Amino acid sequence: QVQLVESGGGLVQPGGSLRLSCAASGFTFRKAVVRWYRQAPGKEREMVGGIFSTGEITKYADSVQGRFTISRDNDNDVVYLQMNSLKPEDTAVYYCYVPIRNTWGQGTQVTVSS
Known about the structure:
single chain; mainly beta; four-stranded antiparallel beta sheet
Protein backbone atom coordinates (compact mmCIF):
# COMPACT_ATOMS: atom_id res chain seq x y z
CA GLN A 1 0.00 0.00 0.00
CA VAL A 2 1.43 3.34 -1.10
CA GLN A 3 1.41 5.77 1.78
CA LEU A 4 2.82 9.18 2.71
CA VAL A 5 2.69 10.45 6.27
CA GLU A 6 3.62 14.01 7.21
CA SER A 7 4.63 15.06 10.71
CA GLY A 8 6.32 17.93 12.52
CA GLY A 9 3.68 20.61 12.27
CA GLY A 10 2.61 22.78 15.16
CA LEU A 11 2.33 26.28 16.56
CA VAL A 12 5.38 28.51 16.27
CA GLN A 13 6.02 32.21 16.81
CA PRO A 14 6.94 34.49 13.90
CA GLY A 15 10.62 34.16 13.16
CA GLY A 16 10.72 30.61 14.45
CA SER A 17 11.52 27.34 12.72
CA LEU A 18 9.93 23.97 12.13
CA ARG A 19 11.02 20.85 10.29
CA LEU A 20 8.37 18.79 8.59
CA SER A 21 8.88 15.17 7.63
CA CYS A 22 7.24 13.10 4.91
CA ALA A 23 7.68 9.38 5.45
CA ALA A 24 6.93 7.05 2.56
CA SER A 25 6.09 3.37 2.31
CA GLY A 26 4.84 0.89 -0.24
CA PHE A 27 6.91 1.98 -3.23
CA THR A 28 10.48 2.72 -4.39
CA PHE A 29 10.69 6.09 -2.74
CA ARG A 30 14.33 6.78 -3.55
CA LYS A 31 13.54 7.05 -7.28
CA ALA A 32 10.62 9.42 -6.89
CA VAL A 33 10.29 13.17 -7.22
CA VAL A 34 8.60 14.51 -4.09
CA ARG A 35 6.86 17.86 -3.82
CA TRP A 36 5.65 19.88 -0.85
CA TYR A 37 2.41 21.85 -1.12
CA ARG A 38 0.49 23.99 1.30
CA GLN A 39 -3.05 25.23 1.56
CA ALA A 40 -4.09 28.16 3.69
CA PRO A 41 -7.70 28.70 4.76
CA GLY A 42 -9.76 30.06 1.88
CA LYS A 43 -6.90 29.76 -0.61
CA GLU A 44 -5.91 27.33 -3.32
CA ARG A 45 -3.26 24.72 -2.71
CA GLU A 46 0.15 25.98 -3.84
CA MET A 47 3.42 24.23 -4.46
CA VAL A 48 6.18 25.06 -1.99
CA GLY A 49 8.94 23.16 -3.75
CA GLY A 50 10.15 19.77 -4.92
CA ILE A 51 13.15 17.48 -4.88
CA PHE A 52 14.48 14.97 -7.40
CA SER A 53 15.66 11.50 -6.45
CA THR A 54 19.23 12.80 -6.65
CA GLY A 55 18.56 15.50 -4.09
CA GLU A 56 18.52 18.28 -6.66
CA ILE A 57 15.79 20.79 -5.99
CA THR A 58 13.16 21.36 -8.67
CA LYS A 59 12.26 24.83 -7.55
CA TYR A 60 10.98 26.80 -4.58
CA ALA A 61 8.03 29.14 -4.55
CA ASP A 62 9.14 32.76 -4.54
CA SER A 63 7.39 33.26 -1.21
CA VAL A 64 9.64 30.73 0.56
CA GLN A 65 12.88 31.08 -1.39
CA GLY A 66 15.78 31.55 1.00
CA ARG A 67 13.76 30.52 4.06
CA PHE A 68 12.69 26.94 3.31
CA THR A 69 14.92 24.00 2.42
CA ILE A 70 13.89 20.60 1.12
CA SER A 71 16.11 17.58 1.63
CA ARG A 72 15.76 13.82 1.56
CA ASP A 73 17.10 10.72 3.24
CA ASN A 74 16.72 7.91 0.73
CA ASP A 75 18.06 5.32 3.15
CA ASN A 76 15.09 5.94 5.42
CA ASP A 77 12.50 6.96 2.80
CA VAL A 78 11.95 10.43 4.26
CA VAL A 79 11.79 13.91 2.76
CA TYR A 80 12.14 16.97 4.94
CA LEU A 81 10.96 20.55 4.73
CA GLN A 82 13.04 22.82 6.94
CA MET A 83 11.20 26.10 7.48
CA ASN A 84 13.05 29.06 8.96
CA SER A 85 12.10 32.69 9.57
CA LEU A 86 8.46 31.70 9.59
CA LYS A 87 5.82 34.33 8.96
CA PRO A 88 2.10 34.40 9.80
CA GLU A 89 1.37 34.02 6.08
CA ASP A 90 3.10 30.63 6.16
CA THR A 91 0.17 29.33 8.22
CA ALA A 92 -1.34 26.44 6.26
CA VAL A 93 -1.78 22.71 6.06
CA TYR A 94 1.36 21.28 4.48
CA TYR A 95 1.22 18.20 2.26
CA CYS A 96 3.76 16.05 0.51
CA TYR A 97 2.96 14.57 -2.89
CA VAL A 98 4.56 11.99 -5.16
CA PRO A 99 3.51 12.66 -8.78
CA ILE A 100 4.47 9.28 -10.20
CA ARG A 101 2.14 7.62 -7.71
CA ASN A 102 -0.41 10.46 -7.64
CA THR A 103 -0.35 10.07 -3.87
CA TRP A 104 -0.86 12.74 -1.21
CA GLY A 105 -0.18 12.61 2.48
CA GLN A 106 -2.85 13.54 5.00
CA GLY A 107 -1.27 16.91 5.76
CA THR A 108 0.16 18.55 8.85
CA GLN A 109 -0.98 21.89 10.26
CA VAL A 110 1.53 24.72 10.63
CA THR A 111 0.39 27.80 12.52
CA VAL A 112 2.61 30.86 12.83
CA SER A 113 1.28 33.22 15.44
CA SER A 114 2.36 35.18 18.48
